[in-house]
Each structure stands twice: as C-alpha cells, then as structure tokens.
Amino acid sequence: MRVFHFDGAAEEDVHLDELYMQEALRLAETAFKEDEVPIGAIIVSQGKIIGKGYNLTERLHDVTAHAEMQAFTAASNFMGGKYLKDCTLYVTVEPCVMCAGASYWTQISRIVYGAKDEKRGASKHGHLYHPKTEIVSGVLEEKCADLIRSFFRNKR
Ligand SMILES: [Zn+2]
C-alpha cells in the first residue's frame, strides 16, 4: 500500500530551510568569536552553497561588510552574473535596508531569515525587496535571536 503525504513537499522544504539556516548560524557563531555582531549568511542554488559570509564590519572597518553583502558578492562571482535567479539567501537576522536594497538588484528568488530586527530590519520601511523575491521569516528564530542577545549582553 502506498501512503501519500500531500504536504510532504512542504515539510521537506521546511526541513531544508532549517538545515541551511543551521549553516548560516555556524557562520554567525564564527562572527561572535571574532567579536563581530553575530550574523551569518549563505546563498544556496540547486542544493549547493555558492556564497557565504558573516558580519565583518569591525575587522574591515567597513559599515557595508554585512554578512549578506559578502554572500551576494561570492554568489555572483560563482554564478558569473549579477542576477541570483533560483537562489535562496539564508540569513540569521532580518536584512537591513542596505542589504534588502542590494538583494533587489540581484533579483534573488527567495530570502529566508531567522530573527526579526525590530530596530533596523528592512520590513519597517515598506517592501524594499524585488517583487520576484519570496520572503520567509522565523526559521530557527530563537537560536538566531539568542546569539544576538548574548552578544549584546556581553557588551554591557
Ligand atoms: Zn545589512
């Protein structure tokens, strides 16, 4: 007897999203160890990680060195083109206005983020993403938020 799970595909997507977010979290943990605001990002295309980044604003003395910006650059280099079609960005914290704007130019297919950024998140400023970009939030939200919280707790 065959059993059909009609929502099987959706469940698999959720599982994959968590798996990839785990990878982004590992990068965020590296940032944490380097005393950077702990945010990590990866870009996945057809089951393959084609770009990675974590926040490096302190090390590079560069306010634009957000995790997403580096992942975009790496992924575009890999793709050999500026558009990131059929790609998904996984980032542990909601993108800021700058990174949402950069994602617009890439026309990336999906953005999956973990924790919301109540102060600097792009969603506070209307819809800045490309109309073709699907946004998913709240994947491993607690883990992503915990890392940020413990970072700033140590700073006080
Ligand atoms: Zn940003």
Structure description:
GO terms for molecular function: tRNA-specific adenosine-34 deaminase activity. The protein is of the alpha/beta class. The protein is 41% helix and 19% strand. It contains 4 helices and 5 strands. It has helices at residues 8-33, 67-79, 97-106, 141-155; strands at residues 40-45, 48-54, 87-93, 110-115, 134-137. It has a 5-stranded mixed beta sheet with strand order 2-1-3-4-5. Helix 3 (97-106) links the parallel strand 3 and strand 4 (110-115). The longest helix is centred in the first third of the chain and has 26 residues, at 8-33. The N and C termini lie far apart (60 Å). The structure holds zinc ion (ZN). The site of zinc ion has 6 residues, from helix 3.
Helicity, as a percent range: 40-55%
How far apart are the first and last residues' alpha carbons, in Å?
A: 60 Å
Number of helices: 4
Q: Beta fraction of the residues?
A: 15-25%
The sequence of SSEs as H and E is HEEHEHEEH
Overall morphology? globular
Are any ligands bound, and if so which?
zinc ion
User: Strands of the biggest beta sheet: in what spatial order?
Assistant: 2-1-3-4-5
Helix/strand-derived class?
Answer: alpha/beta
Indicate the low-confidence ranges by residue numbers. none
Q: What profile does the largest beta sheet have?
A: 5 strands, mixed
**If you average the pLDDT, what whole number results?**
93
Radius of gyration, in Å, reads 16 Å
The count of β-strands is 5
Function: Catalyzes the deamination of adenosine to inosine at the wobble position 34 of tRNA(Arg2).
Active site: 68 (proton donor)
Protein name: tRNA-specific adenosine deaminase
Binding site for Zn(2+): 66, 96, 99
